[in-house]
Amino acid sequence: MTGPSTKARQIAVALWLLVSLFVLALISVLADGNDGLEKFLQFVVGGLALGSIYSILALGFVVIYKATGVFNLAQGSLVLLGTYVLYQFKEEYDLPFGLALLFALVLMAGVGVLIERVVMRKMLGKPVFSAIMVTLALLIIIDQIVRSIWSEPGYVLNLPWSSGKVDIGDVTIRHIDFWAVGSAMVLLVAFFLFFERTRVGLGMRATALDAEVASAQGVRIGVSYAMSWAVAAVVATVAGMILTVRTGGGALTPAVGYVALRAFPAMILGGLDSTGGAVAGGLIIGLAEVLVDGYLDYDWLGERFETVVPYLLLLPIMLWRPHGLFGTKTVERS
Amino acid sequence: MATLLKKSERAAADERNHLAIKVVDLHVSYQRSIKALQGVNLEVPQGKVVAILGANGAGKTTFLRTICGLLGFNGGAISQGSYHLWGQPADKLAPQRIVRLGVGQVLEGRRIFSELTVEENLDVGAISVRNRRATHDLKEHLFTQFPVLGERRNSVAGYLSGGEQQMLAIARALMSDPSLIVLDEPSLGLAPIIARQIAGIISDISTDGTTVLLVEQNAAMALSLSDYAYIFRHGKVAQEGPSEELRADRDILELYLGGGTSESKTKSERS
Amino acid sequence: MSSSTAHKSSSAVEGGPSGRVARAAPSHEGAASDSFSRGGSLKISNVSFSVGGITILDDVSFEVKAGELFGIIGPNGAGKSSLFNCISGIYLPTEGQIHLSDKPIVGRRPTAVAKLGVARTFQNLALFNNLNVSDNLMLGRHRLMRTGYLTAALWFGRARREEVKHRLECAEIIELLGLSEVAKLPVGVLPYGAQKRVELGRALVSEPNLLLLDEPVAGMNDDETEQMSNLLRNVSQQLGITIVLVEHDVHMVQQLADRVCAINFGQVVVVGSPAEVVTHPTVIEAYLGADWS
Amino acid sequence: MSSSSAPQAKGEQGGHDAHLDAQPSPQHAQLKPIALLPGLDTKFSTLAIALIIIFYPVLADNDFWTTVLVSTGVFAAAAIGLNLLTGYTGQVSLGHAAFLTVGSYVAAYFGATQGLWMIVWLPLAGVFGAAVGAIIGPFALRVKGDYLVVISLALLFFTAHVVRNWESVTGGNDGISTSGADLGLGPLNFADLRIFGHTFTREEGLFYLAWIMVGAFALIARNVVRSRPGRAMQAVRDRDTAAEVLGVSSAQYKIAAFVLSSAMASAAGAVLAVHQRFLTPTEPLLELFVSIQFVAIIVVGGVATVYGAIIGAFLLTVLPETIKTYTHWFDFNIPIWDKKLVSSSGIEPGLFNPGSFSNFLFGLLLVVFLLLSPQGIAGWIRAVKGGAIQSFWHNLRGHLRGRWFQRGEPAASRSRA
Predict the structure, then answer these.
(1) Which of residues 159-198 of B touch A (CB under 8 A)?
(2) How distant, in Å, are the alpha carbons of C11, C18, C118, C179 from that of C25?
(3) Angle at A7 between CA A5 and CA A12, to 5 degrees
(4) Displacement of CA C269 from its chain's centroid (Å)
């Protein structure tokens, strides 16, 4: 799938990232001396952690896009639902964390399969526009369901590693940051192996390219579709968990789904169909957001300027590369 | 094609039901209104090459899609009649079940996965086969059979030429080690010389014992390859018979396959 | 395609067309008639095109005279469609120049090329499936119309006059092609043969100087092929439009074309009369095969 | 459509169009599709609806529902714009709420703060909307389909950010009042309308203003789609390469569609602002919900039809108010949660409150229509005319039986043998 040119591009982007980080580090050292470096490193840690969360969110989009060709706008509400389901098992039913997580993931996988079977399967062969619109509708429906089931204020999700942290020099790394980065990396590798090395993954890719032919070759396309939604829902739950604990100290709000909106740029920055791109895009957006927040505090840019940074970054890049940094352009030959 | 998998197991069943395909009074309609097939009766004996001829819109492709279980993709459905594969009812089977029964499919217009590599395309073809070792051997065998594909196994399939893509589509269908292979217009849009090459490949496949069901516009090619032929017209079988007899009967060809002038008749023979 | 429509169209093509097409021509007196009644010449000079490191066209040169019916044959993947894409501005050649009646084309966008009077059909049909037959044809006349958003929004006066005038022009071609009965249907539901005719019609109504036809009879049976050949002959002889035809049906090209160019591996093998080309040893070896009669 | 001049002109040019002179019917048939309101039934129903609208405030005299119908008008006007963009040009946009916001603040600033006349600030709203649309338009050229959806989301974030922070113009988080904006148009003052001795309230005046706008936009949209630019937009939607080869510049028509659609949305937003009397910034998430509502409007009403946008807007603005008014209809207990389905009281909590329930229904309606009736209500109307209303039920039965692979497109386009 990834030709030599894509690989070259990935390396180039990685290098470009490193160089720009290095330049930024240099500037901050020149500006503030040794304190500047620590401040900078602290920002990088924060940016990587946030970026990893975006990456995980973006991976959820990519898996559905890769298998079904559908751009799932409802991913944010899966994040929302997954987080509340985990809360339900962990806090309301008072299960140990591992068990609660397991149950939540299994239940969410079921929800994913259910959505696919009941709704998305029927959109097969319909225009892409309709499929996107259906995911929009799902976004509203799931959002309203979550808000009405968990309607009281003040739910808090306590995880065993919610508040732990490690100090390295003057740089503080919270345990949750390790979890964020670790989960992103593990998921990336798992996704890569799954799509490139397994038959089911190959079947899913074939299905996305031409479902009819894939099924004529014996690919069970129903399984491909259901599986992709299950995986996306599971990934969404992981992302929601880490996000809630990291940003709100475990306090649950329906706004978790809103963060997923900010992950859209991460995903299309990398390219909708590229797992590596999702992770790279997430990291770029996360770093940019935290660094902008840390360094740029000009008044005229306005409060919470960092919330628009992902989109500001996105626009020029999309003009330059309309299919994202690593997205595949369809091969045409007539 | 070499017999590597499953064939011996199937042989017993085949003997019991020497008909690979048996279709009785098949009616198919699209969107509940457009009647594409109106009572087709057709048999494909095991080990033979059967051709389906007919003008555009006669229902040939619809028939093949029915055989492959693909009607649902276009909003079509069997409204009446029965369809058996090796004596087993197959009218309600999903496409992948039909592949598992031993039907390899080459759809019209090649339809390769242009963004996957040549090798990945073949792997998709073998996706229903459990025996990985045998699959691997079969793949290598096909690469020797089709050296063009072997040379370009790691390149993206979209860059292959039309003839090469057609070969890839056939090779992909062979990867499931089918007992029956169905081909829809394999020569469409190909240069005469490539079309003949493809014809050669099809005849090789049949000499290896695989049953072939072939849909073609090119009557001359189809009749020279096949043992028996059906001519479709307006969603029905208008004429059938051993291919040699049909080939000899110019009137029938002229009547059903068009070509009012003698000039174009010789043309359809030649090209 | 049902036989009744086939019959109808065949009578329209064989019986009526000479009169009708000829009549269509004088109705364009004035600004358009100059470019319409006389086809443009096409000159391809040393055109090369490569994508993704693969050379698809390699130093292709030939000339098509004004009013000529020129055939291009060659194996699949030889670069025929790519050449068309270069002419119509979809691809940008890596090297070389293309002239339409002495005007350079390379570097112009497809819309600009269309405005010069180049019309084409596509190998795999490129119709607007949700629009009906007459709207598809009206899009062929897009370049000849002027209505913009403002005049359209006001409608009465210019927009309406123009709309009426061009709809009547299209109606003639629709009738000529035997599509009157289906003129209101979305083209997506038409049989393949009819869709092919709609696409040709869409190219014809745009009053082209140069008509590029990419496999106009692919997937057609002998009857339909015959009708299409007759139609093309009429268009070429009576309207004088220059036609470049890519086709696999060598017999059709042989009967129809004034001159033929054979392409293989992106290179011109031979240009000449049909007889010269089909007897050329390289063509026989690479394309037709040794047992070609 | 009487076109007596056309055949004569034709006759002069063509010389001997005997068949045209003898039988005017084929020519009439050619021109029928370009009539503004093809068919007598369409003409009558349009007239009937126009009369209902004109006399509604006089006869009903119910301020609550008049208020609701003002929003209907505003939403309809903006949805007509979105339908030009999405339905006819095929550009999916979730930024429509942002265009309304732009128009709202133009009305607030130029209308209320600066005190300009309505004939200045209303067109200005359109111009500003068009300008924003022109900025986002070029992205649609480079970026396609799913990517464009995300780009359009950017608009929501940017406008929300600007509104929150440009305090001197927008009032920032404190909000800004719009009630001072002038509503005069020559001798008419929509804030205090008197016609034939009848005095209308401000809401009723706004009702007329909104529906005059709907009428104007509908006319513009209908005229555009039945002539050259509208056809070009649809060509770009269906196949942009083929369109280019015919001389249709996809760049030009995509940008124009963005400009036109955002100008309409922005003008509608300006009227909405005056109607609301006070503007406060909203979260991008809520703006997204508004954008989705617009999509729901055109899907439920009927994609690529002008009247569909109006029907959809009517349904989706009247529905929540109906639910609010008749909450007691949904006031029953749900056994599993032991809650009422919908309740507006805090003492007896419901699974939904009226607001969230109507949001939920929006989503459900959108799914149901996309699955079972993708042509929307316009499709039903067409079906009734064609005498086949059963298609909806047939589809429903099909889905219940589990026929999964259903194509929207006609079969003939794909299988041709």
Answers:
(1) 159, 172-173, 176
(2) 21, 11, 17, 20
(3) 95
(4) 23
Q: Do C190 and D26 touch (CB under 8 A)?
A: no
Record the tokens describing residue B24, joined without a space.
């009785």
Within chain B, where are the H helices?
7-16, 60-68, 95-101, 118-125, 132-145, 147-151, 162-174, 192-207, 219-225, 243-248, 250-257, 262-270
HSE value, Cβ hemisphere, 13 Å, CA-based, for A245: 25
Strand B49-54 to B103-106 pairing: unpaired
Amino acid identity, position C130? N
How crowded is the C-beta side of D128, counted as CA atoms within 13 Å? 24
Which residues 303-322 of D are in CB contact (within 8 Å) with A? none
Task: Please name the helix (run of DSSP H) or strand (run of DSSP E) that holds residue C99, with its range, or none.
Answer: strand C95-100
pLDDT of residue A79: 92
On the CB side of A187, CA atoms within 13 Å amount to 28
Q: What is the pLDDT of residues C3-41, one digit of tens each?
A: 343 343 333 333 333 333 333 333 333 333 344 446 889
Closest CA to D352 of C206, B180, C212, A147: A147
Does this complex have an ipTM over 0.90?
A: no
Instruction: Check residue B156 and report its DSSP letter.
Output: B
For residue D370, what is the nearest residue in chain A, using CA coordinates? Answer: A130
User: What amino acid is encoded at A71 in this protein?
Assistant: F
Distance CA A252, CA A239 (A): 13
Which of B96, B114, B123 is nearest residue A220 as measured by Cβ atoms?
B96
Q: B54: left (phi > 0), else alpha (psi -120 to 50), else beta?
A: left
Q: Give, as one character, the DSSP assignment of residue A328.
A: P
pLDDT at A329: 59
In whole angstroms, give the CA distance from residue C1 to residue A187: 53
Partner residues linked to B180 by β-bridges? B103, B211
Residue A101: count of CB within 10 angstroms of its CB: 18
Which of C82-96, C184-198, D66-80, D383-397 is predicted with the least confidence, judged by mean pLDDT?
A: D383-397
Q: Give counts: helices (H), strands (E), chain C.
A: 13, 10
The number of helix segments (H) and strand segments (E) in chain A equals 11, 2
Q: Measure B143 CA to nearest chain D CA, in Å.
A: 32
Q: Which residues in C176-190 are b (16+ Cβ under 10 Å) and which e?
A: bbbbbebbeebbbbb
Contact present, C80 and C72 (Cβ < 8 Å): yes
Asked whether the beta carbons of residue D285 and residue A255 sit closer than 8 angstroms, the reply is yes
Which among C75, C220, C222 has the least Cβ separation from residue B191?
C75
Measured in angstroms, the CA of A39 and the nearest CA of chain C are apart by 45
For D367-395, write each residue's pLDDT tens digit. 888 888 888 888 888 877 765 545 565 66
Beta-carbon contacts of C227 under 8 Å, excluding residues fewer than 6 positions away, are C6, C9, C10, C13, C14
Which burial class, exposed, middle or buried, applies to C39 when counting CB atoms under 10 A from its CB (0-12, 13-18, 19+)?
buried
Q: Quick check: D331 contacting C, CB < 8 Å?
A: no
B49-54 and A171-174 beta bridge pairing: unpaired
Q: Do C188 and D409 touch (CB under 8 A)?
A: yes
In order, the DSSP letters of D237-263 are HH-HHHHHHTT--HHHHHHHHHHHHHH
Task: Specify the higher pLDDT residue, A34 or C74.
Answer: C74
Distance CA(C120)–CA(C72), nearest Å, equals: 14
SS (H, E, C) A144-160: HHHHHHCCCCCCECCCC
More confident residue, C185 or D106: D106
The whole-model pTM stands at: 0.82
Distance from CA of C120 to the nearest CA of D (A): 7
In the structure, what pLDDT confidence band is assigned to residue C113 with cuts at 50, 70 and 90? Answer: very high
Q: Which residues 351-370 of D are in CB contact (within 8 Å) with A?
A: 351-352, 356-357, 359-360, 362-364, 366-367, 370
